[in-house]
Amino acid sequence: MLTSIAYASILAIGCAAITLWYASTRVFNFAHASMVSWGFYITFILYKLFDSSPYLFMPIAALITGLFGIAIYVSVIRRLIQVKASEITLMMVTLGADFVLFAFLNVVIDYLANVYRWDIRSVNIVLKDVTIATIYGVTIKGVYLVAPFSALAFLVSIYMFLNMTSTGIAMRASIENPELSSILGINTDKIYALAWFIGGLLAGFSGGLLTMITQGTSSIGSDLIVLYFAGSIVGGLQNILGGLLGGLLVGLSERLIPYYLSAVFPWIYSYRFAVPLIMLVATLLLYPRGLAGLVERRWR
Q1: Which residues lie across from 216 on neighbouring strands?
Q2: What is residue 300's predicted lDDT score, i.e. its pLDDT?
Q3: Maximum distance among all alpha carbons in the chain?
Q4: Which residues cross the membrane (predicted)?
Q5: How many CB atoms lie within 10 A of CB 247?
Q6: How much is the pLDDT for 110?
Q7: Residues 44-67: what's their mean pLDDT?
Q8: Which pTM value belongs to this model?
Q9: Which of 114-123, 129-138, 214-223 has the least mean pLDDT?
Q10: Which residues pair with 139 in a beta bridge?
């Protein structure tokens, strides 16, 4: 259960990134996959260099991937938004950006593996996590606390940022009505760049946390990209907090539903990745507004 909660929390942080990008600039960002992989590997490389707790290096990894987000926005997305490119065009461009980031990551991995003989092609530092306590025979690892509290901290921080700061309110206005926001003097270009930075930061932090819960290669982001998208869509795609909740729900469902069903159907756990896909399709068919839409309707 603790592992499932930590895993779902990590997914939730990444889902918030996808939702932020889509809500602000209408871009389904496939480069999210490589940003997660970069966050994963930057955390590992810094851990390897300085031989200290990987948790210390996750914020650094997040900042670097945040800069990747700004670079993608400034280099391609901004121009395409200015010429009113279609959502499909924007999406395909991010696929190209993903290939570039993925290739560059593999160049770095090959260099470290061939020149410095690092065993880096497959990373596994799960056992390097700290043990907080042992309660009734259950070992409490650091990620069991750090991941949920990080997701909660991001939830509170994003809520406060969007509702209590002038920049956050400007971002909400730019998301809801960019043309009117421009007329009112809001620099939507800077707001969008900030959104891409925050999104990259969330993606990289999610990747960094993955080092504490699973083994991975340079394709770890691609392996999980469908789950990230599923969480964002279940959350509603228009609300960042909904994206966090959607990721949490998808992550828990993917782990716990097959686990309990396996008591009756032992073969079913192998198909656990079907759960997020079923949730994604069901959301699109039955209630595309997702969890955020349900919450809004409940409080009206």
Answers
A1: 123
A2: 54
A3: 62
A4: 6-23, 30-50, 56-76, 88-109, 143-162, 191-213, 225-252, 264-287
A5: 32
A6: 93
A7: 93
A8: 0.89
A9: 129-138
A10: 134
Instruction: Indicate left, alpha or beta for 169 from its phi (over 0: left) and psi (-120 to 50: alpha).
Output: alpha
Q: Round to whole Å and give the CA distance between 114 and 112.
A: 6
DSSP annotation of 134 reads E
Structure tokens at 228: 């990230």
Gap between the Cα atoms of 10 and 148, Å rounded = 8
Nearest to 3, CA basis, from 142, 130, 100, 116: 142
The rounded distance, in Å, linking the Cα atoms of 196 and 207 is 16
pLDDT of 209: 93
| Token pair recorded at residue 64 | 């670097």
Please write the tens of the pLDDT for every residue from 94-104. Answer: 999 999 999 99
In angstroms, rounded to a whole number, what is the distance separating the alpha carbons of residues 40 and 236? 27
Q: How many CB atoms lie within 10 A of CB 86?
A: 10
Residues in contact with 81: Cβ distance below 8 Å, sequence separation at least 6, in sequence order: 25, 90, 192
Chain CA centroid to CA 119, Å: 26
Six-digit token string for 254: 């993917």
What is the DSSP-derived secondary structure letter of residue 239?
Answer: -
Confidence of residue 241 (pLDDT cuts 50, 70, 90): confident
Closest CA to 62 of 219, 220, 192, 207: 207
Tokens coding 36 = 């997660």
Chain length of the chain? 300
Asked if the model's pLDDT at residue 159 lies above 90, the reply is no
Token digits for 89?
């065009």
Q: Mean pLDDT over residues 278-298, rounded?
A: 77
